[in-house]
């Protein structure tokens, strides 16, 4: 399968970052959008005690499910099959795409209408089906806009977040003939009308899965626009594609996960639609698909599962909160990463989905500020995993040294010397204090411009007082 995303060009990452930093409209769009999302999340989870108790419960739900993942997947398969859902297993993206294509060919399908699905993005399914002569149309508004622009999503929750209203209006005018307008309601209604007829005509509906319940064989789909419900109920055949980590044990386990997903992602108490699919249409029912297929996609997840530390990556419920609070993602956007999953979660997930050597730069694209771990609803220790992956990248634990050198990830002698000096001083408190005092004197002589660094950043300013000195001053004032 030919991959269209640019994750194979590891050396291109820094070029894309520079391009994104130099793009003022992109930076402005992301800054405005992220500020709004952070505020909404803070408002939705302002009760600290409730938030932390929910996070603890949700983390335990995910940990318990992962601890029993193999047996829960078997239980899910048996329960789904007993209810008439056909279950398929895919070892990688290629096999998953081939299974979707086989179902389409079996039903002589020429059109597929899609609800939002990050796993299908991971599979690059649209491109694969197009090569086979089958049209796949996105029905999620953000995904629809991105598809019109022939781009990939820049955010896992809001795919077109990198575009403002004016850009979307211009795009829809050029591609679909709508009038140029800044009226969001008008643009949304135009897209809805364009898609409505396609739902009726589609041979197959395809969706993702937010949670799959092993004990009931229920596929849960969270959405706001109603396109997910139409996708899974109007066409005669529904295909659900799902990463194997999305399974939970009990139906009651979904409650805390759903509560945190919606509030962490968009600041909503609950989304407009929560779909629960457990079987195809029955003889006495008036709507729903005649056939339901579930494709369980591995694509590197089993490899992650074998490592007790990296297994925590599979807790993710794809809320996007880590992206919204990440100072790096906020400034460069999703496309700079060149991967299906950008931001903090992408930095720890993509190296194992598409190869560590191809994504060795990603773990270093972080300030290690810890904001991602602080807001993660299932308490994934993202900074800890990033540190481990950085160590492996620098030491070449998973990468051939010649590949490292070629891609520019080999540690330079200047960097090695700097870390050796820091380690030496950190082990000698008195020398460390003297060094920090000298550094603080630089506060008065720090130049305003530091070359390329300050083209997109504010020049750093050493603090006038150390943390220890500030603490002593605070104690004296008590």
Automatic annotation (TrEMBL):
4Fe-4S ferredoxin-type domain: residues covered: 306-335
Domain of life: Bacteria
GO MF assignments: 4 iron, 4 sulfur cluster binding; metal ion binding
Alphabetized UniProt keyword annotations: 4Fe-4S, Electron transport, Iron, Iron-sulfur, Metal-binding, Repeat, Transport
Stored Gene3D superfamilies: Alpha-helical ferredoxin, NagB/RpiA/CoA transferase-like
A biological process from GO: lactate metabolic process
Annotated PANTHER family: LACTATE UTILIZATION PROTEIN B
Protein name: L-lactate dehydrogenase complex protein LldF
Organism: Allopseudospirillum japonicum
């Amino acid at each position: 399968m030919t991959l269209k995303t640019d994750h194979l060009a590891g050396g291109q990452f820094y070029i894309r970052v520079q391009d994104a930093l130099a793009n003022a409209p992109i930076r402005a769009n992301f800054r405005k959008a992220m500020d709004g999302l952070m505020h909404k999340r803070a408002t939705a989870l302002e009760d600290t005690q409730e938030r932390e108790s929910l996070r603890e419960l949700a983390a335990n739900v995910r940990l318990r499910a992962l601890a029993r993942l193999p047996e829960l997947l078997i239980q899910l398969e048996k329960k789904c099959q007993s209810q008439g859902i056909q279950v398929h297993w895919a070892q990688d993206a290629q096999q998953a795409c081939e299974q979707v294509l086989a179902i389409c060919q079996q039903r002589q399908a020429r059109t597929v209408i899609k609800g939002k699905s990050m796993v299908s993005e991971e599979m690059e399914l649209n491109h694969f089906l197009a090569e086979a002569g089958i049209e796949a149309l996105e029905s999620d508004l953000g995904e629809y806009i991105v598809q019109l622009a022939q781009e990939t999503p820049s955010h896992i929750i809001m795919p077109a977040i990198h575009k403002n209203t004016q850009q979307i209006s211009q795009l829809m005018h050029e591609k679909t003939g709508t009038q140029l307008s800044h009226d969001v309601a008008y643009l949304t209604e135009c897209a809805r009308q364009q898609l409505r007829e396609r739902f009726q005509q589609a041979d197959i509906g395809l969706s993702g899965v937010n949670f799959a319940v092993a004990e009931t064989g229920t596929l849960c789909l969270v959405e706001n626009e109603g396109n997910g419900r139409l996708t899974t109920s109007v066409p005669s055949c529904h295909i659900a594609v799902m990463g194997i980590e999305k399974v939970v044990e009990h139906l009651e386990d979904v409650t805390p996960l759903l509560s945190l997903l919606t509030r962490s992602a968009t600041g909503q108490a609950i989304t407009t639609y929560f779909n629960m699919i457990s079987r195809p249409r029955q003889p006495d029912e008036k709507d729903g698909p005649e056939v339901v297929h579930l494709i369980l996609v591995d694509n590197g997840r089993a490899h992650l599962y074998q490592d007790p530390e990296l297994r925590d990556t599979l807790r993710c419920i794809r809320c996007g909160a880590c992206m919204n609070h990440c100072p790096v993602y906020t400034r460069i956007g999703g496309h700079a990463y060149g991967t299906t999953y950008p931001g903090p979660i992408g930095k720890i997930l993509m190296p194992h989905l598409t190869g560590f050597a191809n994504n060795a730069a990603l773990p270093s694209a972080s300030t290690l500020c810890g904001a991602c771990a602080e807001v993660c609803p299932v308490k994934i220790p993202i900074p800890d995993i990033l540190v481990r992956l950085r160590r492996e990248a620098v030491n070449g634990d998973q990468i051939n040294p010649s590949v490292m050198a070629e891609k520019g990830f080999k540690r330079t002698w200047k960097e090695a010397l700097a870390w050796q000096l820091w380690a030496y001083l950190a082990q000698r408190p008195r020398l460390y204090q003297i060094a920090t005092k000298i550094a603080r004197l630089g506060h008065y002589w720090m130049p305003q411009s530091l070359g390329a660094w300050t083209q997109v950043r504010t020049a750093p300013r050493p603090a006038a007082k150390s943390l220890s000195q500030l603490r002593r001053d605070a104690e004296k004032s008590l």
